[in-house]
């Protein structure tokens, strides 16, 4: 059994990931119109999935903030290198208020978590599945672009491994609303808000998707559990597209004396949730 050294900052997004991914993988969407402001639905002629997956590398500064009951619990900033349309990513901590923050590297088949304080790394084999974020974005905007009709079904997509608490039911009907556009990092972004159709469910998510390349430049997920209201916000700044990232960026380059461990199969769900919450 491998000992897991993760901070609260990493544990909370692991739960939030169920929300972040879950709202884009539900089986039915119910479209609603927003009152006032801009048009109820964005007018999009582009192939959303193609635009997103055609980005040849992204470099950015990623900041993730976790708040509980209105108080900031942690703030971590990374140098982020991403390859849209794949599971390849590299997150290098710049600064963090959390007790521990790990470098995270994924080449699509293996996730590496490196802790320089302990001079140790954890190697986690990833499932043999292709990234489907572009497809999820395409489906989301397709539903937003349609006229208001009865909810239409969308076949379920792969979901996050089960955790101890699962705030979102992947087959639950959701309500999606369009809230116009807002600037994020100097670029206009579509603002999409997602909530359960059952208003008694205490969670919601807002996603800001850049209007030209359809890169999710900001995400805010909030939920209430056990009397605690948690908000996880991830935002990208200084975004550069088409950076022609070398494949070497997604290969581990740790010191030779690094201690490497591999978690037991039964423990891998935890690490996979951390992989998903990384972006």
TrEMBL record:
Keyword Transmembrane helix present in the record's keywords: the answer is yes
Q: Which UniProt keywords apply?
A: Lipoprotein, Membrane, Transmembrane, Transmembrane helix
Q: Which InterPro entries match?
A: LolA/LolB/LppX, Sporulation_related
Transmembrane regions listed in the UniProt entry: 12-32
Name the source's superkingdom. Answer: Archaea
Q: Where is this region: Disordered?
A: 146-178
The record's Gene3D superfamilies line, in alphabetical order, gives: Lipoprotein localisation LolA/LolB/LppX
- PANTHER family in alphabetical order: SPORULATION PROTEIN YDCC (PTHR37507:SF2)
Q: This chain belongs to which protein, by name?
A: Outer membrane lipoprotein carrier protein LolA
Record organism: Haloarcula argentinensis
The opening ranks of the lineage are:
Archaea, Methanobacteriati, Methanobacteriota, Stenosarchaea group, Halobacteria
